[in-house]
Write a structure and sequence with these properties.
The chain is mainly alpha-helical and 288 residues long. The chain has 2 domains: 92 residues, Orthogonal Bundle (DNA polymerase, domain 1); 159 residues, Intergrase catalytic core (hpI Integrase, Chain A, Orthogonal Bundle), CATH 1.10.443.10. A hairpin with a 4-residue loop joins β1 and β2. The chain starts with a helix and ends with a helix. The model has no long low-confidence stretch (mean pLDDT 87). Belongs to the 'phage' integrase family. GO terms for molecular function: DNA binding.
Length: 288
């Protein structure tokens, strides 16, 4: 079996389980980085081949986290090859990567974090634009993809509950969340204005009748208009985790539920202790 055949088989068997974004990423990795392997027999490729490949990716300037994701794709492909009796071993298991810090740092002051939250709330109160509603929904811990793929059949306005099915979330597990009063009011308003049928997207582009692609320009404009520091739209999730645990003292288990994490260690990567914590601890020791 050639490497190319293995890749195609892996995609064919797993396509129903992968999100469109994951598939797009895998195809991009295959196109950009796997060209040298395509026609080779997988049985002829060994640990040395892949360790040199990984080393070269790192030397080219790719981040360790990115290279780790490329290695992970290779590894699951070889696991499949073992399952279908095309090879006996997974050479990627022995391949080494340098250690790296995968903690998600949100190094904004508490004052700045509060300003971002207040700006989003105020923007939502003063605007009825689609981006305003989407941005407010993101403040509830959702990923942008989850919000933009939400359909009316996933929303129960009368019980105040919405579901993020496994097919549209990163954790691949269905999640159920109770709406805040403000979110429920916003969704009721959208329902009255735009609802046609249960399969319709909650945030449907009224011109194309399709999903919005992105809101990068709107987000950049929002940051500029509110004199906020540059940050990604996805960083709102980091903000929620950091602010909730470090300032509001919300248990990390609760924040994990809000963000839809299946493993609490994932949530812990988003959290940052105050830089003054070491001084605080030593001061208490010296004063005891």
């Amino acid at each position: 079996m050639t490497f190319q055949e293995l890749y195609k088989t892996y995609i064919q068997l797993n396509e129903p389980l992968l999100s469109s974004q994951t598939l797009k990423t895998y195809h991009s990795i295959n196109r950009k980085h796997f060209a040298q392997f395509q026609e080779k027999q997988i049985s002829s490729l060994n640990f040395t081949d892949y360790q040199i490949f990984i080393n070269n990716l790192l030397k080219s300037g790719l981040k360790t986290k990115t290279v780790k994701n490329i290695k992970a794709l290779l590894s699951v492909m070889y696991n499949l090859a073992i399952q279908i009796d095309k090879t006996e071993k997974n050479p990627l298991k022995a391949v080494k990567l340098p250690k790296f810090d995968n903690k998600r740092y949100f190094n904004k002051s508490i004052e700045t974090q509060k300003k971002i939250i207040d700006s989003i709330k105020d923007y939502h109160k003063m605007n009825d634009k689609p981006f305003s509603d989407v941005l407010f929904f993101l403040l509830h811990g959702r990923r942008l993809g989850e919000v933009l793929k939400l359909r009316w059949n996933m929303v129960d306005l009368y019980t105040g509950v919405y579901m993020i099915p496994a097919t549209i979330n990163k954790a691949k597990q269905s999640q159920v969340h109770l709406m805040t009063d403000e979110l429920k009011s916003m969704l009721f308003k959208r329902y009255d204005q735009y609802y046609r049928d249960d399969e319709q997207l909650v945030f449907e582009n009224p011109f194309t009748k399709k999903r919005y692609s992105n809101f990068r320009k709107s987000w950049k404009r929002f940051l500029k208009d509110n004199n906020l520091p540059d940050m990604r739209l996805h960083d709102i999730r980091h903000l929620i985790a950091t602010y909730s645990v470090n300032h509001l003292n919300v248990p990390v288990e609760h924040v994990s539920k809000v963000l839809g994490h299946t493993d609490i260690t994932t949530t812990q990567k988003y959290l940052t202790l105050s830089h003054s914590i070491s001084k605080t601890v030593i001061d208490r020791v010296l004063e005891a």
